[in-house]
Specification:
The chain is α+β, with helices and mostly antiparallel strands. It is built from 10 helices and 14 strands. Helix 4 packs across helix 7 and helix 5 packs across helix 7. The protein starts with a helix and ends in a 13-residue tail after the last helix.
């Protein structure tokens, strides 16, 4: 009899530990500040999720296992440059679902101040920080640790602050003094860059430049500032578990530490930091509307002992807002040879499903497959 009750005891124990951790309102950084030498059980990932098949060491200079870096040249002023750019971006979105962009137009000092703002928030006085702690997605600004803390198989080694900066930007009063101003400034720059990328992606699909923008792909922007404290046992947990993004497109600013990996041809490929670059990746919603032409690829972040690692992810998606618009594969891309692979959905419906499943290692798009 005893064995049948054991899982219940374990799960009760786990939920008690999760609640105790959440109640501290100091996140993973609080654990590190307390000087722990071993990570708590709630963070220990299943060994299967920690495996790292590395790509075969390809010949020097081979780009087979290096995500593409694309020089945006400010968007391309002449028709030929523009066409080349659209081709390169379309190719990367199709084969990798990930690429880095340089000469993207966002000033270097804005990138640096944004990273410093996120670091400043997470490293400020604990009492000030606690005032922003919340699990209510409707809050103007949310600081918490692990959005799926209570639903995921294992907690991740990171803390996050976040807010929607479009369509209704918060005022500086809604945001932390240490980083509010730069969050708003950086978001405006990301929105400009995002609009250019959606134009190029539309052109890559053979559609009118404004096609994706006219589908409201650029209407909403969610900014998340992640802080990955140094981990005493980085081989036992992850910074972020394997997942794909619930967005149309994600733009990521990462610091020099690294740890981001993309699953490509069943191998984990490092997305090495390129100074001044931004990482761009296709989200589930873009894969859905392009009917699998562009791919939303699974990725993860390793925990590290060097930290803290700082990254800022901006998601083009109305993920947490009511949005009645229905999305399905773009009609212009469909044919007898290319029938729709997904049923129609609303972002609200998909987001609800995505949040309830948490980062369980499976693509949410399976839920919408026809």
């Amino acid at each position: 009899m005893e064995s049948s009750s054991t899982p219940t005891v374990a799960s009760v124990d786990r939920s008690t530990q999760l609640k105790a951790f959440d109640d501290t309102k100091t996140g993973v950084k609080g654990l590190v500040d307390a000087g722990i030498a071993e990570i708590p059980a709630i963070f220990r990932a299943h060994p299967v999720t920690l495996t790292s098949p590395k790509p075969p060491s390809s010949s020097p200079g081979s780009s087979q296992f290096t995500i593409p870096t694309i020089d945006l040249k400010g968007g391309g002023t002449d028709a030929i440059t523009r066409r080349n750019l659209a081709e390169k971006i379309g190719d990367a979105a199709e084969k990798w679902g990930f690429f880095q962009v340089i000469n993207h137009g966002i000033p270097l000092d804005v990138l640096e101040r944004m990273k410093e703002g996120v670091r400043g928030f997470h490293e400020q006085d604990t009492q000030v920080k606690k005032g922003f702690y919340s699990r209510d997605p409707a809050s103007k600004m949310v600081y918490s640790s692990n959005f799926d803390l209570f639903s995921s198989p294992a907690a991740n080694w990171r803390d996050t602050l976040g807010c929607y900066t479009a369509p209704d930007p918060p005022t500086s009063d809604d945001l932390p003094a240490v980083c509010g101003e730069i969050m708003i400034e950086y978001s405006k720059e990301v929105m400009k860059l995002g609009k250019l990328l959606f134009e190029l992606l539309s052109e890559a699909l053979g559609l009118n430049s404004n096609h994706l923008k006219d589908m409201d792909c650029t209407n909403s922007l969610l900014l998340l500032g992640h802080y990955y404290p140094p981990c005493p046992q980085p081989d036992l947990t992850l910074g972020i578990t394997k997942h794909s993004d619930n967005s149309f497109l994600t733009l990521l600013l990462q610091d020099h530490i690294g740890g981001l990996q993309v699953l490509h041809e069943q191998y984990w490929v490092d997305v090495s930091p390129v100074p001044g670059a931004l990482v761009v990746n296709v989200g589930d919603l873009l894969q859905l509307i392009t009917n699998d032409k562009f791919i939303s690829v699974e990725h993860r972040v390793l925990a590290n002992g060097a930290g803290p690692r700082i990254s800022v992810a901006c998601f083009f998606s109305s993920y947490l807002m009511a949005n009645p618009r229905v999305y399905g594969p773009i009609k212009e891309l469909l044919s007898e040879q290319n029938l729709p692979k997904y049923r129609d959905t609303t972002i609200t419906e998909y987001s609800k499903f995505y949040r309830s499943k948490g980062f369980d290692g499976n693509s949410g798009l399976l839920y919408l497959k026809i």
